[in-house]
Amino acid sequence: MMASQKERETHVYMAKLAEQAERYDEMVESMKNVAKLDVELTVEERNLLSVGYKNVIGARRASWRIMSSIEQKEESKGNEQNVKLIKGYRQKVEEELSKICSDILEIIDKHLIPSAGTGEATVFYYKIVTLHEGVKSTMKCLKVEYGLRPRV
User: Fold this and answer.
1) Domain extents for the chain?
2) Fewest beta carbons less than 10 Å away: which of 57, 124, 135, 145?
3) 3-145 has which fold?
């Protein structure tokens, strides 16, 4: 068995293990390693990649919403010191979200689309691109919905 095939199997196994343990950041890292082998992903591998990113992003979006809600409450109470602390923390989560989205888009662009052998795989990757571009737009919309001031 070729080294890259063994490496691929190890990364896929680790991604499955991470999924079972609900350690989605590690699941994503394992699947990124598979993608960087510049091979066409199987349906199972594509799904592992997608599930990992979905959970990583979902957790941070939930955190962002909670922080934004708390920020609003503190603002309405006039607790400027707390608002400042929350704002910094919320911005950290925003930066993480932005990095995660940029990360998957780069992996798709540099490794997955060039290695896609089927139309089905290519369509799958473009759907992910659309979803992650949508996350960035959603964050902008949520800021408006929560009445948050843009970052200066």
Assistant:
1) 3-145
2) 145
3) Delta-Endotoxin; domain 1 (1.20.190)
Main-chain dihedrals φ then ψ at residue 150, nearest 5 degrees: -65, 155
Per-residue pLDDT of the chain (152 residues), as tens digits, is 566 899 999 999 999 999 999 999 999 999 999 999 999 999 999 999 999 999 999 999 899 999 999 999 999 999 999 999 999 999 999 889 888 888 988 998 899 988 988 888 888 888 887 776 766 666 665 555 555 554 43
Measured distance CA(102)–CA(110) in Å, rounded: 12
Which structure tokens are listed for 133? 């571009």
Nearest-5° Cα angle at 64, 63 to 65: 90
